Amino acid sequence: MSDRRHSGLKLAAFAGLCLVVAGCATSARRDDGWLTTDQANAESKQMQADGMMPVAIDCWSDKSTSPPEYLLRTKWAPNPRNLLWRWDVGDANYMKQRKIAAARDRLKIVQFRSDINSYCAIWRSA
């Protein structure tokens, strides 16, 4: 087999793998309003670009995955005063670290929610 043909087969195999992976990522999206952390991060970037801020958050951890996956639902509202904000989700230790970081940035907690093993919060500037 020539190097050129072998190279073409590698490229075709790689393209096929990319399509399979992309299909899996798309099919993993939930239809019940709950977003994975990666999906919620992407949504947050878009909402921030659109001048929105989180006004309510809810979370839980899916213990059927290893490690447990955090799932979030967030409500958004316009941010006409351009307040700084952040949300975080994680276990108790992670959230303690995020609370310290938020205080350092002079952000105040506006909502805190918890499930058995998951915690989430929204912080905003005054």
Can you give a write-up of this model?
The chain has three helices and six strands. The chain is of the alpha+beta class and 126 residues long. The strands form two sheets. The protein has a three-stranded antiparallel sheet with strand order 1-3-2, covered by helices on one side. It has a three-stranded antiparallel sheet with strand order 4-6-5, covered by helices on one side. Strand 5 (108-114) and strand 6 (119-124) form a beta hairpin.
Shape: globular
Order of helices and strands: HEHEEEHEE
Radius of gyration: 20 Å
Count helical runs: 3
Number of strands: 6
The chain-level mean pLDDT equals 81
Strand order of the largest sheet: 1-3-2
Describe this protein with a few key phrases.
alpha+beta; single chain; 33% strand; three-stranded antiparallel beta sheet; globular; 126 residues; 6 strands
Write the layout of secondary structure elements.
Blueprint: H1 3-27, E1 35-36, H2 37-49, E2 52-62, E3 69-78, E4 85-90, H3 92-104, E5 108-114, E6 119-124
Antiparallel strand pairs: 1-3, 2-3, 4-6, 5-6
Brief write-up:
Helix content is 40%, strand content 33%. It has 126 residues and is α+β, with helices and mostly antiparallel strands. It has a 3-stranded antiparallel beta sheet, covered by helices on one side. Strands 4-6-5 form a 3-stranded antiparallel beta sheet, covered by helices on one side.
